[in-house]
């Protein structure tokens, strides 16, 4: 029996996920229904928060996909100083009068001479140069870039749905496992109470000489063995409860009361109907479909990269000498500017050549598309096999629960008859204990079968992405 209990506990072991933002423990017991447990888990699951952030980023990128039509704009300013001095020279007009104030002009306005004077000046070593440019490249591959962002967003949504479904399945499994452990503990406690009552009766019968001391010792030994077994199961329950609390983002010292019962409503399922109706709804199949679209879009982007690209460019660059003296700002000798606008149409001719790198990339992309199609076919076969196997397990479990329920009734009647025969001295203690152990084993077998049914049903719901519990 100990071996059976160890196997049962091992079968209920689950992984330990990581969570944050735990609700504060106020010291009061928390009553949890399965709906409340799922709600808490979905709110506090760390992996779900990571997936939500990824989905939000993918949504933002998808919504801003139009920004590929924005030009690349740059603005720069440069201030430089020459290491060598720079000077210039010039002349300016003094007038047409001589040094004595006499005019050199005649009556007809013709001057005999004009006075000019030359001068030298030093040019500031500081120079400021600005540059403003914009460029927009237009190509058919831009459409593929927008499509890629849309597909990435779809894939992020599917990842989020997959994480939610997996988390919900884990929470429900742990919830029912705890209820099943409670039921198992109650079965053992009931057996201990029965054994204690029988021991008390045997000790009284021993005082009157109706049973031997060996019978009393054997009963005590059997009772002593049940104590450690119960303790082991209770420890298993506490360990599973810690997993459950972590699942929900609660503190380990949070007292919880599970409100619910292991209600198994067996119903035979049709594997053909489930496969034909729900298999396409599986999240992994939807993800493979999106992956196929991603590969096809990537191939199209590579092919479109060989098409002409139209580049629109514009630039403007002002130039100012001695920018620290506002007197010269915009002056003809100190300021200058230049600009340009260009339209360029380019075609990568080498990409059209046979056996070029681009041609090989396109061929490789087609191979990936073909391989993904085969992988999807295998995934569909594996999904169908999983669904059919789970349906067979569930249908088998239904029949097994019927048999085990009948077995409990038979073993209960056998134990009652054995106890009556033992009390009348017609049956040995060994035979009575054998009947008792068979009854206990039958009850534990039913508990185990309930677990198998619920676990398989939850796995089937996850496999077809549908709720079958209601």
UniProtKB/TrEMBL annotation:
Q: Which Gene3D superfamilies match?
A: Outer membrane efflux proteins (OEP)
Membrane-spanning ranges: none
First and last residue of the signal peptide:
1-20
Keywords of the record = Cell outer membrane, Coiled coil, Membrane, Signal, Transmembrane, Transmembrane beta strand, Transport
Q: Which segments does the entry list as coiled coil?
A: 178-205
> Where in the cell does this protein reside?
Cell outer membrane
Q: Does the keyword Iron apply?
A: no
Keyword Acyltransferase found = no
Q: Which GO terms describe its molecular function?
A: efflux transmembrane transporter activity; porin activity
Enumerate the PANTHER family for this protein. OUTER MEMBRANE PROTEIN TOLC
Family, per entry? Belongs to the outer membrane factor (OMF) (TC 1.B.17) family.
Name of the protein described by the UniProt record: TolC family protein
| Naturally occurring in which organism (per UniProt) | Candidatus Thalassospirochaeta sargassi
